[in-house]
Write a structure and sequence with these properties.
This protein has about 220 residues and is an alpha+beta fold. The chain has five helices and seven strands. The strands form two sheets. It has a five-stranded mixed β-sheet with strand order 2-4-5-7-6. Strands 1-3 form a two-stranded antiparallel sheet. Bound molecules: adenosine-5'-diphosphate and magnesium ion.
Length: about 220
Amino acid sequence: FIRKANEHDTLKVVGQLAAGIAHEIRNPMTSLKGFIQLLEPNLREHQKMYFEVINSELKRVETIMTEFLMLAKPKKSVFSKINLKYVIQETIEIMKPQATLHDLEIMYETLDGECHVFGDANRLKQVFINLIKNAIEATPAKGNIQVGMSRKASGIMVSVSDSGCGIPKGKLEKLKEPFFTTKENGTGLGLPVSLNIIAEHHGTVDVKSELNKGTIFDICLPALQ
Ligand code: ADP
Ligand code: MG
C-alpha cells in the first residue's frame, strides 16, 4: 500500500491546483447555505420537498469539499506523545450512534498497559472514524464490527474488521485512488485521506478481504517507549 514517489508528487501538484478551486467554491457555498435557510419559513407545501433536496445536495457538496481539502491540502499535523488507547476509545464513542442506527454493535478489545505513539491524535481519530464508517456501511444489520489492538515487533496494531460485503480482489488496488467509490453517496476520499495520514505517521496499512465474508484493515504504528 505504499505509493510510488512519482504518483505522490503528481497527486500533490494536481491537489494544490484543485485545492485552490475547492476553496473558491466553499465561499459561495456558505452564502447559498445561509440564504436558502431564510426561504424555509415561507415555503408552500409542495416546495418543501425541493427545499430538502437542495439542502441535502448542498450538504453533499460540502462533505466532498471538506474531504477533498483534507486530502489535497492537509493541515500540518501536530505530533506529540499520545496514548493510542484513548484515541481508539474516543473514536468508538463518536461512532457508536451511527452503528446503533444501522443495528450494529462495535466490539472493542483493548490492550493492557500504555500504548504510546508519536502522532497527531485528531488526524489519527479521522483515520479510525473513516475505517469504522466504512465497516458500518459495508455490514448488514446485526453483523459484527470489531476494533482490536495488539502489540507487534513493528509497533502497535489496530485492527478494524467487519462481517460485511467484502472487497473483490481486483478492486483492492483501487482503494488508494481518490474518488474510487462503490456507494451512491460515497466520495471515495476516506481511504486516500487515511492512507496519507498513516504514511505521515510512518505506519503501515494492510487489507484482507473476502467477498461476502468481511474485511480487515490492520493499521500498524511505531510504538513509543
Ligand atoms: P467512500 O466510503 O466514500 O466510498 P472510501 O475511500 O472510504 O470512500 O472507500 C472507498 C471504497 O472502498 C468504498 O466505496 C467501498 O467500495 C470500499 N470499502 C472500503 N472499506 C470497505 C469495507 N470495510 N468493506 C467493504 N468495502 C469497503
Ligand atoms: Mg468511506
